[in-house]
Amino acid sequence: MTSTAPGRDDTSAAVLGEVARGPRIVLRDKRLGDAVEDYRWRTDPELTRFDAAKPLAVTYHEFLAVLREEVLYPNPHRRSLAIEDEAGRHIGNIMYYNIDTLRQEAEIGITIGERGCWSRGYGAEAVRALAEHLLGVRDLRRVHLKTLDWNRRARGCFRKAGFVECGRAERGGYAFVLMELRREWLRLTDAPHPPA
Length: 196
Fold this sequence. Notes:
Blueprint: E1 18-21, E2 26-29, H1 35-42, H2 45-49, H3 60-72, E3 78-84, E4 90-100, E5 105-112, H4 122-137, E6 142-148, H5 152-160, E7 164-171, E8 174-182, H6 183-188
Parallel strand pairs: 5-6
Antiparallel strand pairs: 1-2, 2-3, 3-4, 4-5, 6-8, 7-8
Helix pairs in contact: 4-5
């Protein structure tokens, strides 16, 4: 049996606020208890560089007040989820936003904040689990994302999750690679690329 967090008998046990899961990860609703890790990650210059952003410049207490509002009053147009590993540790966050109900699509973003979890497949599992949730349960037709063109590790992660490159864009002086995953690709194959 896999070593798990207290309250989890095995990797298939339900987690409070669970939204989706992969073989080793669970995506769950955000909690106030996530604040310490979230604040550490959002003030880390190296991590924020991967998001083409600047480190957060507010105090922890100011950050906690904002997180409390987000937890108590979720935004219907943007949802942030925590990523837990197989031991129940909060290792990152994943979100979906820019939901377009007419076009049936949404944009996603991810941060694996714990460096010891980088390049171990957690990101690809989390992205794939969220994409399957959005394309299946939420009945969207397409999920898309953008990543900095120099971030090869992220592009590899997204390809592993089934996304394909679909364009390029520039914003705020940064160059991005655009990637997408469509519902019909999931129906036709579990292969990481759409049918030819």
